Amino acid sequence: MPTANELRQGFLDYFKGHGHAIVPSSALIPQADPTLLFTNAGMVQFKGVFLGDERRSYSRAVSSQKCIRAGGKHNDLENVGHTGRHHTFFEMLGNFSFGDYFKEDAIRFGWEYLTQVVNLPPERLWVTVFKDDDEAHAIWEHKVGVPSARIVRCGEKDNFWQMADTGPCGPCSEIHYDQGPGVPGDSAPNGAGDRVMELWNLVFMQYHRDEKGALHPLPKPSIDTGMGLERLAAVVQGKTTNYDSDLFQPIIRAIAGASGKRYGASADEDRAMRVIADHLRAISFLVADGILPSNEGRGYILRRILRRAGRYARLLGIGLDGPVLYRLTDSVIDEMKGAYPELERARTTIDHVTKAEEERFLDTLDKGLGLLDEIVAAVKKSKRTVIPGAELFKLYDTYGFPIDLAADSARDQGLTLDEAGFTAALEEQRERARKTAGFAAAKTKEVYSDLGGIVAPTQFLGYAEMDTDSFVQAIVKQDARITEAAEGDDIEIVLDRTPFYAEGGGQVGDQGLLTGPDGVIEVKQTLKPAPDLFLHQGVVTRGRIREGDRLRAHVDPRLRSGSARNHTATHLLHAVLREVLGPHVKQLGSLVAPNRLRFDFAHFTPVRPGQLEEIEALVNERIRANAPVQTQVMGIAEAVQAGALAFFGDKYGEQVRVVEINQFSKELCGGTHCRHTGEIGLFTLVTETGVAAGVRRIEAQTGEGAYELLKERDGEFRALADVLKTNPTDVLAKARKLVTTLKEKDEEIDQLKSRLVSGQSGGDAGPAFVEVAGATKVFTQSVDGMEMKDLRMLADSLRDKHKSGVFALVSVKDDKVSFLVASTTDVCGRFPANELIKPAAAEIGGTGGGRPELAQAGGKLIERAKAALDRIVEEVKRKAGA
User: Fold this and answer.
1) Pairing of strands 533-546, 160-162
2) Per mean pLDDT, which range of 111-120, 160-169, 225-234, 337-346 is the poorest?
3) What is the dihedral sign for C-alpha 725, 728, 733, 738?
4) pLDDT tens by residue, 764-806
């Protein structure tokens, strides 16, 4: 009986033998495709090829693609655990033809592989075709020999496939497998239950669906097929659920061992183990591909999956006292690392991320589950079956409790959710947030849009040249096009060709000079508001500039060199961060300027000092290697396949520029760089901080800036040595000794204060007092250097000693007055402290209001403080007389 690993390799080998190129799985984050959250099918990495936008060196391909279906159009999250065949993470085996073979060969390959390679009995296979696809029906019946009774015509819902709302699509033919009467369900395809299960989908890619829903024929009809390895393994190994195959059983055994439960003994416990096993695979692969838990986008999907697994772990009795899932991820890595070595490389990261999110969730779960139990009890008591949407939203908004976990819990209790009410409350909150934020989408200025349709694209020559002759195509002043600019005018110039780099990819725009026959422009910034439209922003410093002038464009070489040093250093830093912290690190933003660099990246904890030292050392080691910085233009898919890092949301054309630094780094990048790393000179870290949850920021300097920074630090160090009156080499020892001395002095002061409070000092420790109305005593005392906490201790001591009275204490320390009035319980009704303090506060200069501590900068504070004590006595006398 073949293992899943053998089936995966056998599938690849079969199609390789039929002229297909084996293409490695792409990442779970679709590259340069903002329409998808995750790679959800094998064809995603070939989308550009299907659309005719991209060419490959092969016309036939085969792959085993890692996929996630837990968000967006294709979302199987809610079904996981309740069926034997749905998963959040799965592997899709697929063969592809890009304008090569079409329906007949695709059908023939599929049938031959299933019946002759893995030896499935033909009599247990069913075939479905799109209702109007007579061609496919004829091939199955007459060319392959499938009986007409086992070929079913189906509608668009079941047999017309599309990856998303827009993109490649077409009719499809599915091969289904009948697992036999022992499995509950209908005995024909697309029915209820799991008896007849879809195994392989052959998509005949003929169309592209646009934003309006219209279908357009693709340049060349193509083939896209997909078969879940999990389903294939279960069928070939004679199992009726995917979870009984060798892909899941080692993971389930680890879960059973951790919980002390036996798989197969209880339907509820089996479901919990299946959910956890599935989710552990998704968690491991998502983190290995650089995704971290967050409150939006992909990170939110990961958080939902992790928390759902955590809830089911608690149902098994594990994870009640602390994180447990992070230990179980090892079972996934050990089983899958052979096919996906990135899991082994990310083992430590997967462990840390999972554990940290579990700890966060345990707090949420404890609070949220208690409230959910109360809500469920109230619903049942009122004999309702639906949990109100408002209650769900409160649970989500206040405690961060995921609605899918509430749905799972409700289902277990026989209840449903008012999801419409929840969604309405959520949208209402989002609308309030949008109004509060007040943000609006940036729009391209009308003048720039107009220019885009008039002027020729600007040719960028800045990778190779710093000076060039150019032609003035347009001049813009105050958002209007003009034909001539005079000295002092702030303008924007559009040239036919330029060496000036336009701001982009985090790198600031170039500065320099534009020199014409009758005038000079100092360029202060270069921007690109639209593709191929370069704007040189600056001021006319001499003479006049006219549309149509020929001029010389000259980039400031010092500033450009600074930007190039910092940009190349940013690439080195990114690579080193991934090496030291883990492959989850990815760029989330950057600033590359001539004098500094800033790099924002995904990471879940502050970077430790020792790690920062290692990062700085490794970057400088790469610099000293003086490795060549090479660039190459190639197709986007080819670049990503070659290992170049691309960033989701960045828009890439058919051809991209790859910047490679020896074996250290390879990224898609349009910026300017050094020719060798040695040109950077020196790299120095300045700060490492957090800017958002899961986002860290490093600021650094290179070259001359790094040298100046070190020189400044050295100057400050020497100045510190002078202040401490010691040699620079002895500063640390002297500082430590000084800190120890200060600590001893603080302890001595505290001891003196305690003696004063307890009346044990050698001086006048007792307060002055006067009797009011023959019975009530008012005790007043002024002491220096005390804070409020010291006065409270003194007041407590006096009350213990004198039993009855009003106590007024004042102290001045560091230009701050602390004033306290306290009354014992027997007199507080007649002389409430909060009223007595008001006139005293006015005497000192505060606003009163019963506040015991008042600050008054400058002035004769001690005299005022003592006068305030006299006011307290007068106020008590006044009240006593009343």
Assistant:
1) unpaired
2) 160-169
3) positive
4) 445 666 766 566 788 888 877 788 888 888 888 888 888 888 8
Closest CA to 491 of 458, 468, 522: 522
31 residue type, one letter: Q
The conformation of residue 79, written as its DSSP 8-state character, comes to G
Question: pLDDT tens digits, residue range 507-557?
Answer: 999 999 999 999 999 999 999 988 789 999 999 999 999 999 999 999 999
- Tell me the C-alpha distance between 829 and 391, whole Å: 47
- Specify the pTM: 0.67
- Measuring CA to CA, how many Å separate 247 from each of 237, 239, 336? 11, 12, 9
Q: Is 680 exposed, middle or buried (0-12, 13-18, 19+ CB in 10 A)?
A: buried
Q: Length of the chain in residues, anyone?
A: 882
In sequence order, the β-bridge partners of residue 175 are: 127, 200
pLDDT band at 654 (very low <50, low <70, confident <90, very high): low
SS3 492: strand
pLDDT tens for 387-397 read 988 888 888 77
Cα 393–308–602 angle (5° rounding)?
90
> What are the beta bridge partners of residue 602?
695
- Residues 67-126 have pLDDT tens digits of 998 865 556 676 787 788 889 999 999 999 999 999 999 999 999 999 999 999 999 999
Contact by Cβ (8 Å): 840, 819:
yes
Are the CB atoms for 343 and 89 separated by under 8 Å?
no
Q: Is 320 exposed, middle or buried (0-12, 13-18, 19+ CB in 10 A)?
A: exposed
Query: Shortest CA distance to 194 belongs to which of 279, 79, 113?
Result: 79
Give me the phi and psi of 114, to 5 degrees please.
-70, -40
CA distance 307 to 364: 10
Rounded-to-integer distance, Cα 504 and Cα 671, Å: 8
CA angle, residues 134, 138, 141, in degrees to nearest 5: 135
- Give the pair of three-digit tokens for residue 34: 């903002």
- The answer, yes or no, to whether residue 692 has pLDDT greater than 80, is no
Distance separating alpha carbons of residues 726 and 720, to the nearest angstrom: 9
Whole-Å CA distances, 805 to 136, 768, 827, 828, 835? 103, 12, 7, 9, 15
- Residues 6 or more apart from 27 whose CB is under 8 A from it? 39, 289, 290, 640
**CA 45 – CA 33 distance, rounded (Å):** 10
Question: 753: phi > 0 → left, psi -120 to 50 → alpha, else beta; which?
Answer: alpha
Question: How many other CB atoms are there within 10 angstroms of residue 192's CB atom?
Answer: 9
3-state secondary structure 202-225: EEEEEEEECCCCCEEEEEEEEEEE
Task: Quick: pLDDT tens for 715-727.
Answer: 998 999 999 889 9
Question: Which range is least confidently modeled, 3-12, 345-354, 669-678?
Answer: 345-354
Structure tokens at 324: 């447990």
CA–CA dist 47, 51 (Å, integer): 6
**How many whole angstroms separate alpha carbon 211 and alpha carbon 171?**
19
For residues 68-106, one letter each, b for 16 or more C-beta atoms within 10 angstroms of the residue's C-beta and e for the rest, the string is bbbbeebebbeebbebbbbbbbbbbbbbbbbbbbbbebb
Residue 530 tokens, joined: 């639209």
CB 806 within 8 A of CB 777: yes
Say if CB 533 and CB 494 are below 8 A apart.
Answer: yes
